[in-house]
């Protein structure tokens, strides 16, 4: 998916390629006599051809300065029209095929699509109106010329209006879906809180009452019992009941209290994690690319857990190794890679026995919960690599953070 959005990450390269294509197309069309090129070109014709190429290359700036691009192409078209008539300085080989460059169609698209404010839109419509007059040449009435000119300058703005409306609709639907997700999550939290309060009330009303009765009866038995063994057993039963009441009271308090948020650090804590590893004798280097805000909170916490578990395994099983931590944030995914070199020493057997051996398994299960994938295994050079691909956005309510 990220490869399909390459053009969004490299707009300058895309605009340069488009400008070159239109420049070559207009130059080829001119040289083949499809427009103003004379039968016997002179110096003026070649100068105009170079000026046309430069005017078409201004499409590189169609996003940042769309009105400037329209002005340059409009000025060139007007200059060619005036040189042909009334100045008669240029005589086309085919007088009926004097059209504006193909680049004018794309240039007319920019002011409408990239003019986001109402004031910019009004200015864009005014400039495009003048641009249409230059391209259609109404002072030389011709049905074909006027029709082609209107098509050259109208198709672009119409497409811009369509794509702008589509973009606004997608943004509105996305915002509505995210708002509905947040509301669903809040409702789920409210339902959980109400259920916890109900369970706490049930435990307080039923279990506490019964245990209190047991404590009272044990206390009465301790007083009325005739032999020492019975009194001692009753005292032990009473003490155990009192302890159970205290523990039950604490449990009821926990149930009635809303659970705290997940305290697992976000990717902001990766630098501290790597610094701690270096201070503990395992040199680690962190490289982050992209914007951290592209990752939703659940994915951010999962990223932190992956790096923490991988560094823990290096400490236990690869003493003296160097670690490289790489995190890439993209629009649609987050990629985490933790790679260590060959260990310089033998691992401590007592330290390795402290682990459960289920770290990677638990990590893979957590990654799968957010619809990601995890790969962990040895490298050809003798090191070890933990790599995970995670979606950039995962709704909080759908994942176990």
Give a short synopsis of this structure.
The protein has 13 helices and five strands. With 401 residues, the protein is an alpha+beta fold.
Tags for this entry?
disordered C terminus, elongated, 13 helices, single chain, 401 residues, alpha+beta, 5-stranded mixed beta sheet
Could you say which overall geometry the principal axes of the C-alpha atoms support? elongated
Uncertain segments? 397-401
Share of residues in helices: 55-70%
Give the SSE order as H and E letters.
HHHHHHHHHHEHEEHHEE
Total domains = 3
Largest sheet: 5 strands, mixed
User: Average pLDDT value?
Assistant: 80
Strand content: 5-15%
Q: Measure the end-to-end span.
A: 25 Å
Q: Enumerate how many helices there are, as a single number.
A: 13
The count of DSSP E runs of length 2 or more, i.e. the number of strands, is 5
The strand order across the widest sheet is: 1-2-3-5-4
Secondary structural class: alpha+beta
Radius of gyration: 37 Å
